[in-house]
From TrEMBL:
Name recorded for this polypeptide: Ethanolamine utilization protein EutJ
High-level lineage: Bacteria, Pseudomonadati, Pseudomonadota, Gammaproteobacteria, Oceanospirillales
BP terms from Gene Ontology: cell division
Domain SHS2: from-to ranges: 33-139
Alphabetized InterPro entries for the sequence: ATPase_NBD, EutJ, FtsA/MreB, PilM, SHS2_FtsA
Species, as recorded: Endozoicomonas elysicola
Domain of life of the organism encoding this protein: Bacteria
SUPFAM superfamilies: Actin-like ATPase domain
Length: 283
């Protein structure tokens, strides 16, 4: 795993973003792997070649999970299958190997359901790992806390000398911000969700949801008590909002960093873990 280098992380994430709309030419089709992120808000599939380069990515908004649990198995399976087929059409290859990630401390039975979704969609699961560890495949930090704030969950892992020494999972995330916005503007959840993601509205959105972000920051603060955390690294779609890192920094008193686009970090990390599990990674 490479050392933390903010420029390298930003460049990598940029490449994943580009691969949403651009498809790379594939030379070694049998060495492709897929990272499948089954989130409470988005299902994302990232395809990497054996150099670790993103070649194609597909994603879809889906509410088939709740608090990290698959609540609509058939719905989840159909979406993963459709996204896989879209990628296969774009790349003109068949995709066979995938990795998946779960929130920390997920019970074995829930892990199995995740695995069945991906297997049911026609891929072999070559690796399973927890989400913050996946995110750290991209970040490469040795010390500090990785905080992944997604749609429905906030995952936190504390790293010491490259090892995870503490994990926590809280049922809070972007869905709560959208609910607060919907209440404020008296609109539907779906409208609030769209409004929240539009960067043109970001200043207004932060003004309204600031107390909720402060609460998220204080939850992070509680969890890192008693640990020597000198840096916090934010990932997950919810942290796309401006000032997120400043608010968390203020609540925790700990230097807080986020990548330019924190949204695709975990799905990319899951895909990297598949390459590592298969010993395919060549530089
Ligand atoms: N540009 C954006 N600005 C603000 N919020 C965003 C933006 N992009 C995504 N989000 C929010 O991020 C959340 C989804 O993030 P992410 O994909 O990391 O979650 P997930 O992995 O599906 O969920 P979880 O990790 O909780 O299972 C949603 O609440 C979405 O509204
Ligand atoms: Mg997530």
């Amino acid at each position: 795993m490479s050392e933390f280098n903010p420029e390298r992380v930003s460049k990598l994430i940029q490449k994943v973003e580009n691969s949403l709309t651009h498809t790379a030419q594939v030379t070694d089709a049998d060495k492709l792997v897929v990272g499948v992120d089954l989130g409470t808000a988005y299902i994302v599939l990232v395809v990497l070649d054996h150099h670790g380069e993103p070649v194609a990515t597909e994603m879809q908004f889906a509410q088939v999970l709740k608090d990290g649990l698959v609540v609509d198995y058939i719905g989840a399976l159909n979406i993963v299958r459709q996204l896989k087929e879209k990628l296969e059409t774009r790349l003109q290859v068949s995709l066979e190997k995938a990795a998946i990630a779960m929130p920390s401390n997920t019970p074995e039975s829930v892990c199995k359901t995740h695995r069945y979704v991906v297997e049911g969609a026609g891929m072999e699961v070559v690796n399973m790992l927890d989400e913050p560890t996946a995110a750290n495949r991209v970040l490469g930090i040795r010390n500090g806390a990785v905080v992944d704030i997604g749609g429905g969950t906030t995952g936190l892992s504390i790293f010491k000398d490259g090892e995870v020494i503490y994990t926590a999972d809280e049922a809070t995330g972007g869905t709560h911000l959208s609910l607060v916005l919907a209440g404020h503007y008296k609109t539907s959840f779906e409208e609030a969700e769209e409004q929240k993601k539009d960067s043109a509205n970001h200043r207004d959105v932060v003004a309204i949801v600031r107390p909720v972000i402060e609460k998220m920051g204080s939850i992070v603060h509680q969890h890192i008590q008693g640990f020597d955390v000198k840096d916090i690294y934010l990932v997950g779609g919810t942290t796309c909002l401006p000032e997120f890192e400043q608010i968390v920094e203020k609540q925790t008193g700990v230097t807080t960093w986020k990548p330019e686009n924190p949204f695709l970090v975990t799905p990319l990390g899951i895909a990297i873990s598949a390459l590592e599990a298969e010993n395919l990674l060549e530089s």
